[in-house]
Every structure is written in C-alpha cells, then in structure tokens.
C-alpha cells in the first residue's frame, strides 16, 4: 500500500485530539506511553487494565505531567469474558459515542501453558480473543464516533505465525513462542477482517494494525521471566536492540491519529528490520492476507466469546 508518511513522524506530529475520546488497553509500557501522548494531545482517555493499583499509579503519573489532562482508569481483565462484558456495559452506560479504540495490552511467552478463566490459552485468550470481544462490546459506540478508528497491536512475531484451527488453544502442543505468534497473527488478521466487514456493513470504522518493533517494556519479564533467554538478552542488550517504550508507541499513535493513516493498513518502525525507528508501512506476512482464514477465524471467535458484531 502506497502511503505518504513523513519520514521522521513522532508524537510532535500528532494533530490535536481535543474533542476525541479513546479507550486504550494496558497500563504500562506501550499502553502507558500511548495514553500519555493522547492525553497530552487533548483527548479524553480511558485507560483500561486488570490491576487497579497499577492503573491508579499510571493515572497519577500522567496527571502530574499533565494536570489538566482528561484521563481516567477503568478495570478490565481481558482474560475474563465476564469482565469484558461488564466493562462494555459500563462504558455504554457512561457515554454516547467513542472515537478511538487501541487494542494494546498483551502477555508474552509464559513458559508453562496457562489458561484464562474461560479456558482459553492465556496468550490467545488475552491478546486476541479478549480484544475481539472488547471491540464487539464497544462497536455500538464506535459506530456513533467521529471518524472512528480501531488500532489492534500485532507483532513482528506474526511473520512466523500460523492459525491452527485443530489446536487453537495449544492443548495438544504448547510452545510459548508458537502460541504467541499465533495470537499476534490473529490480531493482525482481525484488524484486516474488521476493515472488510466495516466496509461491507457501512459501520464507518477505519481498522488498522500496528506493531511496536522491539521495545523496552515489561512484556518479556512479566511473561517469559527476567531470567529466561529472552529476559537475559533484554537485560544485557536492551539499550542497543530495544527502543524506548515511548518510541514503540509511535506506530499505534500514528495509526490512531495521523490524517494520512488508512484503514486496512499495518504500521511499524522503519529501521533495523522494523525493530526500531519512525512509523512506516510494515511488512505483512502472506498468511495474514488470507481472507478465507480470517473469515473463518472471525466466526470461530464469535462462538468462543459469545459476541456478535451488530
């Protein structure tokens, strides 16, 4: 997809978001930096996460930096469909519309297979199915939004991903990175399928994928562990290989705010094989473009999460 992206786009280029509302999942790392930038740009920000203490601390930090900022925390556990439904009911009761949803939060590479409260493999359940259900819950508000956008975070790992319908929850064979890659491929396929369905149904939503490259967040320590091979690499080579979380947020911020950003596109960093740098159009794995698999995944996901996009 050809697109005229400023070669050194950064948060300084974010247009005023005054009058726009955004829900962002995740209270640390990329989620925190995204919320900070959107608050600074004047948006009304709802930061959603499962840890109320961590959420309150993030809000406190942002309010200290931006005293007049319009930001609040709402409890949301993406590994619990009941929590997602309750969140959706609260937000729909509180407001009439929503302009931006950034599906950001994730877990990565727990060494042993874990499951969500609903029995999904933790990475597939949190990274993909949780956000799938959340988007469905917020769809009525997004449809009433002003030029609404949904940004779903994928990963470089999607390039090695495959959707295994015969073992979608990794019950037969759990390998941490294989399951993570599948979840992030599913996220990107969802972003593209949401755009196709929005176009077909006239929802008016622009849906994009984005990825942060390799960034210094707590994703690896919280998942694989700080003493895992990936954790050790992060600790020893972090300053060289890993970009700051604030820079990792740029692709999703570009997708969420730039006037030039296009629905159905995928954005990531521009340098070092997309590991770091300014936002640009990112490489899409061939399997992520398979519309037939994406449509089947959507139908399976609706049944698993008991939601409908209406």
TrEMBL record:
<dbReference type="Pfam" id="PF00106">
    <property type="entry name" value="adh_short"/>
</dbReference>
<protein>
    <submittedName>
        <fullName>SDR family NAD(P)-dependent oxidoreductase</fullName>
    </submittedName>
</protein>
<keyword id="KW-0560">Oxidoreductase</keyword>
<dbReference type="InterPro" id="IPR002347">
    <property type="entry name" value="SDR_fam"/>
</dbReference>
<dbReference type="InterPro" id="IPR036291">
    <property type="entry name" value="NAD(P)-bd_dom_sf"/>
</dbReference>
């Amino acid at each position: 997809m050809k697109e005229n992206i400023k070669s050194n786009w950064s948060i300084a280029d974010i247009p005023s978001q005054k009058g726009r509302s955004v829900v962002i999942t995740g209270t640390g790392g990329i989620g925190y930096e995204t919320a900070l930038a959107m608050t600074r740009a004047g948006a009304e920000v709802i930061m959603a996460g499962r840890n109320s203490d961590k959420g309150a601390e993030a809000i406190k930090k942002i309010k200290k930096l931006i005293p007049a900022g319009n930001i609040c925390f709402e409890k949301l556990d993406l590994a619990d469909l009941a929590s997602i439904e309750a969140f959706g009911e609260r937000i729909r009761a509180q407001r009439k519309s929503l302009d931006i949803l950034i599906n950001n939060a994730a877990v990565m590479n727990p060494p042993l297979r874990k499951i969500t409260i609903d029995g999904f493999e933790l990475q597939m359940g949190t990274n993909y199915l949780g956000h799938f259900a959340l988007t469905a819950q917020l769809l009525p508000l997004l449809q009433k939004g002003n030029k609404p956008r949904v940004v779903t975070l994928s990963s470089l790992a999607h390039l090695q991903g495959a959707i295994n319908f015969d073992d979608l929850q990794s019950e037969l064979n759990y390998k941490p990175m294989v399951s993570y890659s599948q979840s992030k491929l599913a996220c990107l396929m969802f972003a593209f399928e949401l755009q196709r369905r929005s176009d077909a149904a006239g929802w008016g939503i622009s849906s994009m994928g984005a990825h942060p490259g390799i960034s210094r967040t707590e994703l690896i320590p919280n998942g694989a562990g700080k003493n895992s091979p990936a954790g050790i690499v992060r600790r020893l080579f972090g300053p060289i290989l890993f970009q700051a979380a604030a820079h990792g947020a740029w692709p999703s911020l570009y997708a969420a705010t730039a006037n030039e950003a296009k629905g159905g596109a995928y954005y990531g960093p521009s340098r070092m094989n997309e590991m770091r740098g300014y936002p640009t159009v990112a490489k899409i794995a061939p399997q992520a473009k398979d519309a037939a698999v994406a449509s089947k995944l959507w139908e399976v996901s609706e049944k698993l999460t008991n939601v409908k996009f209406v």
